[in-house]
Fold each of these.
Amino acid sequence: MKMPTPDASVLARRVEIANALRAIVPGEGVIVEQDEMRVYETDALTAYRQLPMIVVLPKTTEQVSQVLKYCNEIGIKVVPRGAGTSLSGGALPLADGIILGLGKFNKIMDIDYGNRTVTVQPGVTNLGITNAVAHEGFYYAPDPSSQIACTIGGNIAENSGGVHCLKYGLTTNNVLGIEMVLMNGDVVRLGGKHLDSDGYDLLGIMTGSEGLLGVVTEVTVRILKKPETLRAVLIGFPSSETGGDCVAAIIAAGIIPGGMEMMDKPAIHAAEEFVHAGYPLDVEAILIVELDGPEAEVDHLIGEVETIARKCGAVSIRVSSSEDERMVFWAGRKAAFPAVGRISPDYLCMDGTIPRKELPLVLNRMAEMSERHGLRVANVFHAGDGNLHPLILYDANKPGELQAAEDFGADILKLCVEVGGVLTGEHGVGVEKRDLMIHQFTETDMNQQQRVKCAFDPDGLLNPGKVFPQLHRCAELGRMHIHRGQLPFPDLPRF
Amino acid sequence: MKMPTPDASVLARRVEIANALRAIVPGEGVIVEQDEMRVYETDALTAYRQLPMIVVLPKTTEQVSQVLKYCNEIGIKVVPRGAGTSLSGGALPLADGIILGLGKFNKIMDIDYGNRTVTVQPGVTNLGITNAVAHEGFYYAPDPSSQIACTIGGNIAENSGGVHCLKYGLTTNNVLGIEMVLMNGDVVRLGGKHLDSDGYDLLGIMTGSEGLLGVVTEVTVRILKKPETLRAVLIGFPSSETGGDCVAAIIAAGIIPGGMEMMDKPAIHAAEEFVHAGYPLDVEAILIVELDGPEAEVDHLIGEVETIARKCGAVSIRVSSSEDERMVFWAGRKAAFPAVGRISPDYLCMDGTIPRKELPLVLNRMAEMSERHGLRVANVFHAGDGNLHPLILYDANKPGELQAAEDFGADILKLCVEVGGVLTGEHGVGVEKRDLMIHQFTETDMNQQQRVKCAFDPDGLLNPGKVFPQLHRCAELGRMHIHRGQLPFPDLPRF
């Protein structure tokens, strides 16, 4: 595979740049040794690897500001990084760029129960926020599978979701305020502890911007009271279509479950063999529906869900009768990715989102594609909000299988767009889906997005090579002329 | 009052411009007669009036595109307008600008129950969406008081709320997709029927952008199933503080009411005299708490709310026993503004938002300010999300009273910012709060907001004079030099 061509003039100044960065971040905050930088060479999209030029680990907002100002002035590319759990290659380094690691921003700064907010530094983990307030009965709602490791700063970059986002929203619905540093070193504050906001919704635009607009240095999130009662219903269906119909019927009845997840037969079997969750093995699909709230409400809703499921043709229904049983229902779902990893040498996790009612159509078409590409697929997904996670099984050691898996994945995502959906629900575009963006957006759409990018980072130094398949010079965007800028990763290196 | 100075070179070309616009929008789509333009001279912030140069009423997206392209090329200012119900002067015309009225965009284009969405043209009223789906048991959640008249396009411009936004969100939480026209005439689509999105959150930034970034020509919103049961509790308190404490206690108990509204004594008495809602007159504050959902849940939650209210020192509690009684409870709240209009010749409606726990402090300080400014104030507000609507009572015919009312209002909003809140919850900045923006944002913050504005409208032709107290030239923003551009309404005309 051809590696991206780094800027030789920047690499030639590597020692000088490292020294300048050391003056800003003293002590052990600047890493240049290859061995020490090795841990930064990839993220959770492990198919791609690249050593950065230098790793910088600042401790304060002032240091971040000075590092960005310096890089902006002399034209050095910057890749911000949290815990490196991105599934789309959002934190993949550049050979001629620095990694700006936010790992030392790990303090919880303020817990305010009166306003139901927690303010933290961006390197605090997602679960770390919940852990800080759990003893008072509160929690932070978005719960990506990587929540033990992933940071809240990374959650903002990717607008992360989780199994409860149908009812409680994605990151964008749970972040109230941030402090961020612009590429020119300016420090701005967006939002705060209040629920409404004035001025443009820059907080909204930062959430899901994949590290291309600025570096977050402080985060205020809302916390929620843990529901009084949580119970889950495990429902088996004779086909994915009937399961999909049941999802639509539950939503149509006005019920918003705390979580509503679906798994198809390959995923059920892989999970069951791995964690013994007690899933039925004679069904084509299962649905896990979790209801939460006051006990009276949960009892009532469980009755309604059971009635709906029976009408939809469910062949088995089990309601959790204890907290332990509820956790076991979820254990299989939460372990689905590693479980699939046990039955296949490699897998590619896709992340398309579709209008809910297209579920049966898309599942059928995916089965056809599986035949055509000669690769198995296991489906695990956030059924309630139409966010699919097809896991394409392949073996990287068999010639052509990675390529076939990527082609299959691209076909799935194009289908999602075709039925009115989008390329990504919560994993981001990154490098993985960058070249598919032209299937989602017109040139006019993309130009307008890049004009907004120019408003934050006019020289395109923040995380280049991600999200946009073409980089335009800002001065030229105004006149709508299309010039292809130098694109990092013109042909992505794979491992 | 000094009127803004219009651009004489533009006014001199008025006939030529009108003819060019007639070529784009034929028939009765271009209005130049003063008498006919009179209905466009103000909006619901009636203190300010200004006749526009020309009114254009296009019927198609293509016409909007061509009008904007033409105005962009020859440098004509454009003020987009829905139903003109803005409370902050967002639709106030410019003497040397056109009004682009979207009133003819009044079609419902698609109702899709499977995806729970409705797609409409932007001139459809807020209530018109609910009316189109009510027979199937659905509704559109945000419900501003002006919902009979206000349009969904205007709701997007102002990110409108209503009494149910604590539970169901503001406009930004209920709009899934739009088609919009940029100032250069480009047509872009943002979002769609799906719940998640990729690319930058331009839909979020458009929502609440007050007509400064583009013109919306199509809107897709989510609709919700009408709750099975709705009941309201009317609670009387011996002081505003105890009422505020009760709001915090209900939220802290994990209850998210469908609506939670508070009124103070002056507002209670004005409303009771007007609509005879049966409000208690011997209390200092009332809280209307509405619970919705399945009957079992509502019964359970009403019991909890009653218990909490008693603990907080409530002196009267009434639960609606019929749909008629529930509507009567709300009638007083919904008529509060006109009711206050009956007890005072004029009033100014403010719209600050504060972190919820600061309610008692802010209410106390407001009472002190009322004494100092010598003007009465009635409080009606969305207690659940901390969004205040103080109504400052004054008489425009008494010399100095409008000025005193505006000074009082400015003091209230500065206090909101001081305690960590914002200038506006749902009415927008417009011209009304424009000059207070410097109390909310630093120069760095404002410059970054204007860089985003430049990404949409580099010549600042869309709705200038609103939101920003200073306009900077886009080329200069990049270099952070501050130049004051020509600002419409340097000294606002009042009536």
Amino acid sequence: MRTLYHFWISPACRKVRLALSEKGLEFDLKIEKPWERRPGFLAINPAGEVPVLVEENENILADSQAICEYLEENYKDVSLLPQDKIARAETRRLIGWFDRKFFVEVTDNLVEEKIMKRLTKSGTPNTAAIRAGHHNIHYHLEYITYLVERRSWLAGDDFSLADIAAAAQLSSVDYLGDVPWEQHPAAKIWYARAKSRPSFRAILGDNLPGMPAPSHYADLDF
Amino acid sequence: MRTLYHFWISPACRKVRLALSEKGLEFDLKIEKPWERRPGFLAINPAGEVPVLVEENENILADSQAICEYLEENYKDVSLLPQDKIARAETRRLIGWFDRKFFVEVTDNLVEEKIMKRLTKSGTPNTAAIRAGHHNIHYHLEYITYLVERRSWLAGDDFSLADIAAAAQLSSVDYLGDVPWEQHPAAKIWYARAKSRPSFRAILGDNLPGMPAPSHYADLDF
């Protein structure tokens, strides 16, 4: 069976889980705690990062975008990138926006400080970083609003990897209850539509012992 | 004419300049100072980041990897990704490594602190960050050594976007004279081979007034 090494709150792992599910590909999940730097895991990914996908034929793939491009090239029944070349570039621009810009400006400031530091016992949360995360998220929700006022989904007419990349980041932050949905109703409607897809079920069922999700997290009519 | 909005020391811009040159595509360079947040520039890229490529037909492309994937899909005379699917995934894994991991652990700590803070007048260099950058670069040069002891180029038999992504980051740091080449001779030989390619000429000719490059920067026999 195909195996995904992941850590539940990691947005990069959530992105790959969503992409696999959207494509109807079955996989086992194995939890990996990258901060433990387990030798067996470093042997399959020297970057020491999740996600890592091990295919049934033992091929090993790492880096969320490398994995998603591989899935796109190999499993074509369901496309998560459009066919038109300019539309593909637009989709990848937005994937980069959420994987990199949203992650650095929002997710890393909130999830890293509030959850990962506690799990890894690596110091006390940096309140300046948390403040920055809370501040920055508005700008990103406004950008999502701008996009969905002009398009059905973030990158165009169809649900794509751009929606997956964005929803993966937001779902991690939403686990903390830190997404100010009420102030951004159009972004909330987009997220509700994404979250209603069957591919989201497993992610909405995630629950860390001792750190329960807020009640709206898994609620489709939040 | 095709136009690339760039800033000379940005590794993401260098990556696209190298990819365009390797593919033999002509382009004009326009310097953009992203920190000035010029309205005309924000209108073409709301992320406010370089590089941005404007094609002759006025199509606008942003995000270095989105641009490189677009170039790969549209200009096939010279391939910068291998044909085999697993080899493509391996190449993209390494692109992610250098674009993201090397950038965060090395380039951002050194180039941001030593050059960008001076240019943007945004505070004094953070000496802890600079120390971290100097420390972390050894690990990355060791990883390059590991790769080139097993392969002709970083991702396999052929020069690829992985070499471009890595050399783009290293060339930015090398402009500061901060790459400890003498301690990593195999990585140095790989970089010398990359740097001798005609695509590197323009980058090695870069010179910022008041911040001259060290003498070995443009020297092919450094």
